[in-house]
């Protein structure tokens, strides 16, 4: 409505200027000097009035947008004016100003709400730009680092020089573990980064969490599992020894007295020999068990060299193919790219791959069209990996937390240290081992390298 009145007034003014200019032209042509004088004055006045009319509208709109940009919502345009188009324009601007002010207040309330959540969060949160200027840090982070206020990452030098180096060279989606020590305590920090774009500027959001408590809980849980498995294995070995020993003692002692040699029967002596053989066998099993424990604790430090993934998996393929007898199970390897190289201890990693390959082949032995495949490649973040995939029955969810516990096994044979030993080898390489399993569809063990 306001724009229509504005255009009508503008059209009328332009028509009047046109008519006045025509009159001025006739006055010059016919030498109407009096008419020339008045028409010239009228033309100048009309042009000036048109300029003032347009500039007044432009100034209002310019003032309006300047006020919005400066978040000044106190600007009000008079609505009691004689010109109807100006009145409607002023009303429209005031209405828009009110709506923007309402939206701005809602955004401020929402921002305060989110900031309060971040301040109360139990994890440390920080954002900083490419120059290292910290735009936000919540109280939890300042408490974790024992430094306040935080304005620039260079201040972290005062906390710990190594911590500053981590933040200085932090890459997006990177994750670091850092042990922060002070006079009172040691804190194990997990530090993760995520890139952000704000107002066209690149920022880095860093989340810092004290995982010392979680690590303690995990460590305690691991010890409980290990002790449970050790107790189970040792009791299985010792119980028959104790039982047989008690039976043998009864052959040679009666009512607290030693039975004379001439009273012993041949069957008692034979049973004694059988019992001693069983005790010897059980003792040997216990020695093998202890030896397995020693091998787990004495994994040598990796002697790393550059190894071709193609050659490494080729050797594993030859070894695994020799175990295929039924003609239905298939074992294959892949590598992407073909010239992929790994910086590893070839002997240790081969031992891990052989162990995982054997487990996979055993898992698919009873599966129709069983298939095991080893794939070496590079993740999107640049980390190299080797996957061991099979289409066997899979791992039940309730056992996922148990499979890496030393000596835990569901097989009738074996020591149960294969997976825990593999995990230890990968830790020594600075990498890790993860497992994903969908029962009766696919099980994947992934070895990741630093």
From TrEMBL:
<keyword id="KW-0547">Nucleotide-binding</keyword>
<dbReference type="InterPro" id="IPR036890">
    <property type="entry name" value="HATPase_C_sf"/>
</dbReference>
<dbReference type="GO" id="GO:0016301">
    <property type="term" value="F:kinase activity"/>
</dbReference>
<dbReference type="InterPro" id="IPR003594">
    <property type="entry name" value="HATPase_dom"/>
</dbReference>
<keyword id="KW-0808">Transferase</keyword>
<keyword id="KW-0067">ATP-binding</keyword>
<feature type="domain" description="Histidine kinase">
    <location>
        <begin position="229"/>
        <end position="450"/>
    </location>
</feature>
<keyword id="KW-0812">Transmembrane</keyword>
<dbReference type="Pfam" id="PF02518">
    <property type="entry name" value="HATPase_c"/>
</dbReference>
<keyword id="KW-1133">Transmembrane helix</keyword>
<dbReference type="InterPro" id="IPR005467">
    <property type="entry name" value="His_kinase_dom"/>
</dbReference>
<dbReference type="InterPro" id="IPR004358">
    <property type="entry name" value="Sig_transdc_His_kin-like_C"/>
</dbReference>
<dbReference type="InterPro" id="IPR050351">
    <property type="entry name" value="BphY/WalK/GraS-like"/>
</dbReference>
<feature type="transmembrane region" description="Helical">
    <location>
        <begin position="7"/>
        <end position="26"/>
    </location>
</feature>
<keyword id="KW-0418">Kinase</keyword>
<keyword id="KW-0472">Membrane</keyword>
<protein>
    <recommendedName>
        <fullName>histidine kinase</fullName>
        <ecNumber>2.7.13.3</ecNumber>
    </recommendedName>
</protein>
<feature type="transmembrane region" description="Helical">
    <location>
        <begin position="32"/>
        <end position="54"/>
    </location>
</feature>
<keyword id="KW-0902">Two-component regulatory system</keyword>
<dbReference type="InterPro" id="IPR035965">
    <property type="entry name" value="PAS-like_dom_sf"/>
</dbReference>
């Amino acid at each position: 409505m306001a724009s229509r009145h504005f255009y009508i007034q503008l059209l009328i003014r332009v028509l009047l200027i046109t008519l006045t200019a025509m009159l001025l032209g006739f006055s010059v042509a016919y030498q109407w000097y009096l008419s020339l004088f008045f028409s010239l004055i009228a033309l100048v006045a009309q042009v000036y009035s048109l300029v003032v009319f347009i500039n007044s509208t432009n100034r209002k709109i310019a003032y309006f947008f300047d006020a919005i940009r400066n978040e000044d919502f106190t600007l009000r345009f008079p609505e009691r004016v004689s010109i109807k188009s100006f009145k409607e324009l002023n009303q429209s601007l005031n209405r828009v100003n009110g709506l923007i002010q309402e939206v701005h207040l809602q955004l401020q309330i929402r921002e305060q709400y989110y900031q309060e959540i971040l301040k109360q969060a139990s994890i440390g949160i920080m954002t900083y730009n490419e120059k290292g200027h910290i735009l936000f840090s919540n109280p939890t982070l300042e408490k974790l680092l024992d430094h306040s206020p935080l304005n620039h990452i260079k201040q972290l030098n005062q906390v710990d020089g190594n911590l500053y180096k981590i933040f200085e060279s932090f890459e997006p989606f990177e994750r670091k573990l850092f042990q922060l020590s002070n006079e009172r305590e040691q804190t194990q920090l997990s530090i993760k980064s995520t890139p952000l774009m704000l107002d066209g500027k690149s920022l880095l959001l860093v989340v810092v969490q004290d995982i010392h408590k979680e690590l303690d809980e995990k460590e305690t849980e691991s010890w409980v599992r290990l002790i449970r498995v050790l107790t189970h294995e040792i009791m299985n070995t010792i119980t028959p020894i104790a039982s047989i020993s008690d039976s043998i003692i009864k052959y040679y002692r009666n009512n607290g007295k030693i039975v004379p040699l001439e009273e012993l029967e041949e069957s008692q002596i034979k049973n004694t020999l059988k019992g001693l053989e069983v005790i010897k066998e059980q003792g040997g099993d216990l020695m093998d068990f202890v030896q397995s424990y020693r091998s787990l604790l004495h994994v040598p430090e990796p002697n790393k060299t550059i190894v071709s993934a193609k050659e490494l998996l080729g050797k594993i393929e030859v070894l695994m193919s020799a175990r295929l007898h039924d003609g239905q199970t298939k074992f294959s390897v892949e590598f992407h790219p073909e010239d992929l190289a790994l910086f590893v201890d070839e002997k240790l990693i081969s031992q891990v791959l052989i162990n995982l390959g054997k487990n996979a082949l055993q898992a698919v032995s009873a599966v129709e069209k069983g298939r095991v495949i080893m794939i070496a490649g590079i993740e999107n973040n640049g980390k190299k990996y080797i996957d061991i995939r099979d289409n066997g029955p899979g791992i039940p969810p309730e056992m996922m937390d148990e499979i890496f516990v030393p000596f835990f096994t569901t097989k009738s044979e074996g020591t149960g240290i294969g997976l825990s030993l593999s995990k230890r080898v990968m830790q020594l390489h600075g990498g890790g081992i993860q497992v994903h399993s969908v029962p009766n569809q696919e099980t994947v063990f992934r070895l990741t390298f630093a």
